[in-house]
Amino acid sequence: MAAATSVVLLDRGNNTTCTINLHGATVVSWRVNNQEQLFVSKAAIFDGKAPIRGGIPVVFPHFGPWSYGPNHGFARVTQWGVEKRPERLPSGDVEAIFFCTDNEWTRSIWHYQFRLTYRLILREKRTRDMVIYQEGREAVTIGEWTDRIYQNTPQEHIITNVVSGRKMRVQKYNFPDTVVWNPWLDHSKDVPDLGEDEYPNMICVESGHVSSPVVLLPGTAFEASQILQGSDPYVFTYFFLGNVLMFFKCSY
Ligand SMILES: O=P(O)(O)OC[C@H]1O[C@H](O)[C@H](O)[C@@H](O)[C@@H]1O
């Protein structure tokens, strides 16, 4: 079947790229020095209907099973528009802005008007600071089926064992909660678009406003963002970092 989805590429020109599939504005690839940082299942479906299994989806307006509409809301299965094509900023960062608004289908599920604005910045910076990954907190290890919503978590998380044992830093702003999910072998069978051998190679860590809802009065806005920071150990002396900054703004 022909691909029912289209993508937008943010390219810094030195093998550092970020690919956004407009189906759900899902970040389906983030490559730092040609090394992929994100997990996308080999069984992921790109039919423009199913949510994409992996990458970075946008979950809105509901997290989890929803009696009114699709699991995790409709934003991840909606076709998003491009508000600003990828543009190189004076700093060298590449920025693009995506949006999604209510339509007849979303209003049939959730009778509100809204506009989501999603700003992505692909950033790369050099630093001599080799100690940014100091972990002073209790480590959460995953060795079995895990599906937890942690409330009021620290602003920063370090995910270890990402891409050949490296680390990824997540910094979140205005997202009080963190969800950690891995179906492990037992539950992988229930996830048809995830290969049964893939669970040891993925971990789903979601920054969110999950345990308590955000109530927006008409005309008001809610803003939140997260920064993902990965490292490239092949560059000596300097520590090379590629960031995806996600500014997520919702208003109605
Ligand atoms: O299968 P999906 O609708 O994409 O959901 C995949 C997973 O997402 C989250 O991490 C939830 O905490 C899990 O309960 C859920 O199973």
Automatic annotation (TrEMBL):
Family per similarity comment: Belongs to the glucose-6-phosphate 1-epimerase family.
Catalyzed reaction equations: alpha-D-galactose = beta-D-galactose; alpha-D-glucose 6-phosphate = beta-D-glucose 6-phosphate
Xref: Pfam families: Aldose_epim
One GO BP annotation of this record: galactose metabolic process
EC numbers for this chain: 5.1.3.15
InterPro entries found in the cross-reference section: Aldose_1/G6P_1-epimerase (IPR008183), G6P_1-epimerase (IPR025532), Gal_mutarotase_sf_dom (IPR011013), GH-type_carb-bd (IPR014718)
Keywords: Isomerase
Keyword set includes Isomerase: yes
Protein name per UniProt: Galactose mutarotase
GO molecular function, one term: glucose-6-phosphate 1-epimerase activity
Record bears the keyword Isomerase: yes
Pathway the protein takes part in: Carbohydrate metabolism; galactose metabolism
GO annotation, cellular component aspect: cytoplasm
Source taxon at top rank: Eukaryota
Function: Mutarotase that catalyzes the interconversion of beta-D-galactose and alpha-D-galactose during galactose metabolism. Beta-D-galactose is metabolized in the liver into glucose 1-phosphate, the primary metabolic fuel, by the action of four enzymes that constitute the Leloir pathway: GALM, GALK1 (galactokinase), GALT (galactose-1-phosphate uridylyltransferase) and GALE (UDP-galactose-4'-epimerase). Involved in the maintenance of the equilibrium between the beta- and alpha-anomers of galactose, therefore ensuring a sufficient supply of the alpha-anomer for GALK1.
Organism per entry: Nesidiocoris tenuis
